Amino acid sequence: MSKIDFYHVNYENLAASAKPAIPDKHPFRQGISWDLLMDVWAAEKNYGPHRVRGPLPTCRPSHIAIRGEQSTERHMARRKLVYEGKAKILYEGPEPGTLVQYFKDDATAFNAEKKDIIEGKGVLNNRLSEFFMTGLNTLGIPTHFIKSLNMREQLIRAVEIVPLEVIVRNYAAGTMSKRLGIEEGTALPRPIVEFCLKDDSLGDPLVSEEHIIAFNWASQQDLDDMLALALRVNDFLSGVMYGVGIRVADFKIEIGRVYEGDYQRLIIADEISPDSCRLWDLKTGEKLDKDVFRRDLGSLTDAYAEVARRLGVLPENPAPISKPTLIN
């Protein structure tokens, strides 16, 4: 079995084992996906029994748990806000050393010069990031992900973020093509790892290892560890996505420090989703990432949902979604 096949089969087994056991006689069991079923079950558990009027969708639209989302928003208002970024919000977690990461529907590009609200984007990114982070954890590549809480939130470890973006490039695209005059889509001779300073006011400039060490953003050992982590993530992502007919052109990750006694180690933080990757269909070259939004190429949620469908996060052939009405 090849490395690519191993990653794909390994994670399918993992995803299957993660599905909770739902009684066959549950009133919503027939004709509905397990992820939607769990959302309905969670709403019943937390907010009381309800019925769904109208046809049941077989995939999870962003607006399915109307009452649940409103209650979640009220609950979030009572929690301590730690940080709000362009696409996510961090709240104080239930235990020391933990945070709750909430995925927003906001879409931004070109350092927030272009903005929009894309309904359902946060749900898809949450589910996809959970998929990738869980797969990395299973393979022994440490991440901040602990568990999924609901359709928009994850419980994560609190980390000290290294102020660098780590970019791994397999094909020329984006700023690399502009800087070096290389045609987009050109295969690189080997994966190239770049570092950018995390500073929106400066446009997240590309920095060298000399800059990083001179300004004490990270040590030489940190850089060695970050490079090793980035290349391991690249092996995993490239293998998983190739197995479902998608090419990983490049991606961005963030790294966090965690302290265990007198020792420090580095782990993957933030998110891994189509927001932070360039994903191209192997056969057609169709873009299935945030370039759809950057370049006005169509529906962003359709592109992200296609990635989720191929990975098994959404059903293979979802029925048309109709908005349900929840009543007492």
Account of the 3D structure:
With 328 residues, this protein is α+β, with helices and mostly antiparallel strands. The chain folds into two domains: 17-158, Phosphorylase Kinase, domain 1; 160-310, 2-Layer Sandwich (D-amino Acid Aminotransferase, Chain A, domain 1), CATH 3.30.470.20. The chain has nine helices and 15 strands. It has helices at residues 3-18, 34-47, 66-77, 121-138, 174-180, 209-214, 220-242, 291-294, 300-310; strands spanning 51-53, 81-84, 88-92, 98-103, 106-109, 114-117, 145-148, 153-157, 160-171, 187-197, 206-207, 246-260, 263-269, 277-281, 325-327. Strands 9, 10, 11, 12, 13 and 14 form a six-stranded antiparallel sheet that branches. A five-stranded antiparallel sheet has the order 2-3-4-8-7, with helices on one face. Strand 10 and strand 11 form a beta hairpin. Helix 4 (121-138) packs parallel to helix 9 (300-310). It is globular and about 50 Å long.
Descriptors:
328 residues; six-stranded antiparallel β-sheet; 15 strands; disordered N terminus
Tally the structural domains: 2
Class by alpha and beta content: alpha+beta
* Second CATH tier, the architecture of the largest domain: 2-Layer Sandwich
Instruction: Output the radius of gyration.
Output: 20 Å
CATH class of the largest domain: Alpha Beta
How large is the count of helical segments? 9
Order of helices and strands: HHEHEEEEEHEEEHEEHHEEEHHE
Number of strands: 15
Give the biggest beta sheet.
6 strands, antiparallel
Rounded to the nearest angstrom, the distance between the terminal CA atoms is 53 Å
Low-confidence stretches: 1-75
